[in-house]
Design goal:
2 strands; 4% strand; 191 residues; mainly alpha; elongated
Length: 191
């Protein structure tokens, strides 16, 4: 009986293919943090860390929404800062999590499969852009488009004074827009 206990198990260890922290870091740097979140989350799902994967996916969606809602002069710099911060964070976290895996044979997944998979992160990003773009005209806090729509409604009703007020609000929010300025100038002749 004791001899049987000393013999190694005949069952092979299950194999998990994971992207390395370096692969995730490089792809995050090159393609942005949505790709890094996608790759890291797939790794976590494979490692059985579903809650961590879901939490990071939700955090990524919130981060993308925040970047999209920032004024134009801040969004690129903030996105770059988030990208670098996430790159360092995800590499450290993935190193730690992979080192904790026991009972599995870990193999490195090919970087090109990571690149192709990371494109799915951009698919999610595109969906978020579509949703936010659809909702932004409905909220005055999201930009000048709300006021442009309001101005258009007043213009169609013949209330040119109120249309001028709404278009002026749109210009205050986005003074660079020539479209709003030209609409307001043409209305000035009607008022």
């Amino acid at each position: 009986v004791m001899i049987e206990n000393l013999q190694p198990s005949a069952e092979p260890m299950p194999t998990i293919k994971l992207w390395t922290p370096n692969t995730i870091g490089v792809l995050t740097f090159l393609t942005g943090f949505p790709s890094g979140i996608t790759l890291a989350s797939i790794n976590w799902f494979k490692m059985g860390m579903k809650a961590k994967a879901i939490a990071h996916i939700l955090g990524g969606i919130i981060g993308i929404a925040i970047v999209m809602l920032l004024p134009d002069r801040f969004d690129r710099g903030f996105a770059l800062l988030v990208n670098f911060g996430f790159l360092a964070y995800i590499r450290q976290l993935m190193n730690s999590d992979i080192s904790k895996i026991t009972g599995n044979n870990i193999q490195n997944a090919h970087w090109f499969s990571g690149f192709l998979t990371s494109l799915a992160g951009w698919g999610v990003f595109a969906l978020i852009i579509i949703v936010v773009s659809f909702l932004s005209p409905l909220s005055p806090a999201d930009g000048p488009y709300y006021y442009i729509e309001q101005g258009d409604k007043y213009f169609e009703k013949g209330d040119f004074n109120q249309a001028v007020i709404e278009y002026s609000r749109a210009i205050e929010l986005d003074p660079r827009s020539e479209e709003h300025t030209s609409e307001l100038q043409s209305l000035a002749y009607l008022v």
